[in-house]
TrEMBL record:
<feature type="domain" description="Acylphosphatase-like">
    <location>
        <begin position="5"/>
        <end position="90"/>
    </location>
</feature>
<dbReference type="InterPro" id="IPR036046">
    <property type="entry name" value="Acylphosphatase-like_dom_sf"/>
</dbReference>
<feature type="active site">
    <location>
        <position position="20"/>
    </location>
</feature>
<dbReference type="InterPro" id="IPR017968">
    <property type="entry name" value="Acylphosphatase_CS"/>
</dbReference>
<dbReference type="InterPro" id="IPR020456">
    <property type="entry name" value="Acylphosphatase"/>
</dbReference>
<keyword id="KW-0378">Hydrolase</keyword>
<protein>
    <recommendedName>
        <fullName>Acylphosphatase</fullName>
        <ecNumber>3.6.1.7</ecNumber>
    </recommendedName>
</protein>
<comment type="similarity">
    <text>Belongs to the acylphosphatase family.</text>
</comment>
<dbReference type="InterPro" id="IPR001792">
    <property type="entry name" value="Acylphosphatase-like_dom"/>
</dbReference>
<feature type="active site">
    <location>
        <position position="38"/>
    </location>
</feature>
<dbReference type="Pfam" id="PF00708">
    <property type="entry name" value="Acylphosphatase"/>
</dbReference>
Length: 90
């Protein structure tokens, strides 16, 4: 199983609506590792390490996010492999 790491930057109404919690829960359900973190500019950064299918499923999830959120923009960037323990909320 080839693992890789992808960084997503999610813009919109994504802070103060449980976005990180729901994203971390979804990541754990996928069996992936990583974190979801609020950024100073109101965006959320999501780092995920997993196989191609897990990363693509997270991508599709982040296009809409939880019902309480509004996603206006989603950027995806392949980054160097990083090993994480679990899926954290930072």
């Amino acid at each position: 199983m080839d693992l890789s790491t992808t960084k997503f930057i999610v813009s919109g109404r994504v802070q103060g609506v449980g976005f990180r919690y729901h994203t971390a829960y979804f990541g754990l359900k996928l069996g992936a590792t990583g974190y979801a973190k609020n950024l100073w500019d109101g965006d959320v950064e999501v780092m995920i390490t997993g196989n191609e299918e897990q990363i693509n499923q997270m991508h599709h999830y982040l296009l809409d996010g939880p019902r309480s959120a509004r996603v206006d923009n989603l950027r995806r960037e392949e980054v160097d492999y990083q090993a994480f323990q679990g899926f954290d909320i930072l």
